[in-house]
Amino acid sequence: MASRDALLPWAIYVCICVFAARGTDLAPASAYEGKPIAEIRFDPVQQPVTRADRERILPIHASQPFRMSDVQAAIKKLFATGEYANIEVEAQAEANGVVLIFHTTEQWFVGPVEVRGRTGAPPSSGQLANATRLQLGTPYEEGDVRTATEGMRDLLERNGLYHSSIHSVVSRDAEHQEVALNFRVDAGKRARLTLPEIDGDTRIPAEEVAESAKYKSWFRWKPATASNTQSGVVNIRKKYEKLDRLTASVTLEGREYLPIENRVKPQITVDGGPRIKFQTEGAKLSRSNLKKYVPVFDQETVNRDLLVTGARNLRDYYQNKGYFDATVDFTSSQPTADLREITYKIGLGERHKIVKVDIIGNQYFLTSQITERMFIRKAGWILMRHGRYSNSFAKHDVDAIEALYHDSGFRDVKVTVETTDDYLAKPGDVAVIIKIEEGPQYLVSTLNVEGVDRKDRGTILALLASQAGQPFSESSIGVDRNYLLELYQSEGYPDVIFEYSTAQAGPARMTVTYKITPGAPRYVRDVLIYGMRRTKMRLVAPNLSLEPGDPLSWTRMGNIQRRLYDLGVFDKVDMAIQNEHGDTQNKYVLYHVTEGHLYNVAVGLGLEIAQIGGSANSLNNPAGVAGVSPRAAFDLTRLNLWGLGHSLTLSTRYSTLNQRASLIYSIPRFHNYIQDVSVVAFYDNIRDVLTYTGRRIGATVQISHKHSKATTFLWRYSWRDVTVNQAFLKINPELIPIVAQEAHIALIAGTMIRDRRDDPVNAHRGSYFSVDLGLVDSAFGGNKNFTRLLGRYSFYHPVWRKDWIFATNTMFGWIQPFGVPAGETGFEYVPLPEHFYGGGSTSMRGFPDNQAGPRDPVTGFPLGGNALLMHQTELRFPLLGPNVGGVVFEDMGNVYTDVQSISFRVHQNGIQDFNYMVHAVGVGLRYRTIVGPVRVDLAYAINPPTFFGLQGTYQQLLFGGATSAIQNLDHFRFFISIGQAF
């Protein structure tokens, strides 16, 4: 566009000086000056600018006098639309006046740019597309293909692909003035690196520098990719840093391609510079801290500004450790031409401790509202043993408190920090006093809003922050500015202008005036989508909330882009407005999508360490023994089936405790109300409860509806065949025929989830509530009848300084059988694998995994139960720095025979009584990682159960000979896992 504007005066001169008078001799343009314009024509008749836009922008019309200046203005206006590459004007004399004919050449625009073929990776097809520098919706020039090809070839060669071929195919869409460019790339064989060529004043042997690039791996030279080449430059810099040559300059000047060997020789210029030796006097400082606080190491240069910054950082470092009077200065000397010594002289002074932080003078804000914005901290018992204070922190706190007051209208607020040494006559103790002089609060006297001439003016004005009587602040004006601009831009006014002015209206009173200039409205001409090869339009269409004639809203355009990403079938969604800056009211909205891969493969390996051991044939350890269970997982997913976003996933899990395989067919966004439908067929081999080995085969159909951002509803039908292997059932032999019966479970269930946590992985505030209610009935296709209820409520609330978190979690479960055959109890009627089980790192830490609740009176192995009640309480707090935290917790609860047996008793009523409340207390550590906190918990069970068990083998259980023995669960246990307990 800039080049077109530069040529515009010459184009106008050429275009309007050539007129033909109906086959007669050429006449100068001045000959028609003042004559009436009989007609205005366009050639071709079909124009890129609509008739409505032409009538709006053209300054000339039929029947008005012809003027040269009007023609010039008309050409300028047409060029300003951005829709024309060339315009010529012809005048013809007619009996009733002058006929003007505009001969136009339309402007083409960049449409989809796609790169396919064997790209080499790196670079990827996306990187190659970016290298073309062709932006969706921008003007297209004939030389763009050559420029794009050169850009891609340069990127390929920078990645060692010197034998690549690039073929371009240009397709034109005349209706939309779009040019689609398809580049077919064959990357060819990639070259490999060789020893770089080293030039410059290296200060050390050039051969040694070349070797330090590490371009050769153990067996062969590395591929000549851009990242490998650059990593060699980084490796050379690291070598010079180890030699204390911190100012060394290492520059990649170029690459020499050796075609015979198909090798690339990087050309690197090195200036080694002198050795820079840092040392400290007055205090010891590790090299890692020196590198952390002195920016010379990062900037790879040495100058006075960086050394001064380092001195200031070191002073803050020592002040933060309690040396509040610390001083840091530096000296620089150069004993030899190849050595420069920099000495930081540190005066620590007496070590202090912040024993008191007081805030005085605040009346408008609570002290807690101010302290939560401060860095200065009083000394703690574990964390920050000397408190936290430095000059930089004091300045930060002053700025933060003043900003808080400024936002509420206190324009003249003054904040000072004063310290008192040897507080209460105790040497080393320091009190910090924050003094606040609030001053008057400025209020908005009058708010004037100009330019908002709409039916909803009253509603808009009511939502502004700077209302009459409200505190005056620039931040409130900023909030109003963003609100008004977003409002107008979302309704098709992209050129809206916001201006404001303020004036004193009396003591501590301000008049605020807003002026809104909406500009010309813009509308959607059409929405065009490119790049879909497999994906069906019926999947995408419901997400397109813009139609021709709608206001051109960036907000709605962004929502469409987000929803297209949410479909899960596109790796990239580019969005643009064709001819965005052209002066036309109706514009094309463009989306170019890049479809994702069709297959995803995920492989995982892991270990579980807990009380999970024990032989399948042994009765000796009903509570388990410490053991290791290796785990492996393999998932294969076929994505975007039928082009409708459906997926099919084969998911497998294998460990010594559990083997599971499932086939999951997922239909996302099935309907506006039903967001997701999934059909799951599964096989599950169970041994995570030591009492039995079981098998489940079944299928589930589930639909979901996201009612709101926080609330989701799930409905499902599930059928499963449940079998318990009699050969390894470690219970009273008389009960084996009953509980080992094959069960067919047909379940209809519904779940409601309301998640209002700020972070599901590591919540600091909010709540989580879920309730699952199911009905198992023989009428649905099974042979069992019972209802099943399981609910959970978790609550998180900061109790001090946002990082001390009080968290609770309560779980309640209830299975109620009905239609129980005579001679069976409700407990025996429900299959063992369908019982509730509890205990372990996520439910009740007073038990090993799945060890809570009733036990077999003969063998002592856990049986689970038909009811569950557990409650966990935690206090989470920072411990060492930002990544290490601590937890103290108390867990209580148990699994019960049935709901009538739930009890809050804390003592067993006999050795076969398990229906009482077990309590456990403990402490834990949390280490923050990118996948969630790594958790270590040490728990002490206050009142673990005692029970009868057997010593012997499974054969002795069946045929006699096992020895009865009183056993109990250990008081102490530990858990290691990832993620919070709840």
How does this structure look, described?
With 982 residues, the chain is of the alpha+beta class. The chain has eight domains: 2-106, Roll (Ubiquitin-like (UB roll)), CATH 3.10.20; 109-186, membrane protein fhac (Ubiquitin-like (UB roll), Roll); 192-271, Roll (Ubiquitin-like (UB roll)), CATH 3.10.20.310; 275-347, Ubiquitin-like (UB roll) (Roll); 353-437, Roll (Ubiquitin-like (UB roll)); 443-517, membrane protein fhac (Ubiquitin-like (UB roll), Roll); 523-595, membrane protein fhac (Ubiquitin-like (UB roll), Roll), CATH 3.10.20; 602-978, membrane protein fhac: a member of the omp85/tpsb transporter family (Porin, Beta Barrel). It contains 19 helices and 40 strands. It has a 16-stranded antiparallel sheet. Strands 7, 8, 9 and 10 form a four-stranded mixed sheet that branches. It has a three-stranded mixed sheet with strand order 1-3-2. Helix 1 (2-16) runs antiparallel to helix 3. The longest helix is centred in the first third of the chain and has 17 residues, at 226-242. The protein starts with a helix and ends with a strand. Mean pLDDT is 89; it is low at 1-26.
Tell me the overall shape.
globular
Q: How does the helix and strand content classify structurally? A: alpha+beta
Strand content: 35-45%
What about the largest sheet? 16 strands, antiparallel
- Total of domains: 8
Radius of gyration: 39 Å
Please name the CATH topology of the largest domain.
Porin
The first-level CATH class name of the largest domain = Mainly Beta
CATH superfamily of the largest domain: membrane protein fhac: a member of the omp85/tpsb transporter family
Proper CATH architecture of the largest domain: Beta Barrel
Strand order of the largest sheet: 23-24-25-26-27-28-29-30-31-32-33-34-35-36-37-40
Proportion of residues in helical segments: 10-25%
Separation of the first and last Cα atoms: 58 Å
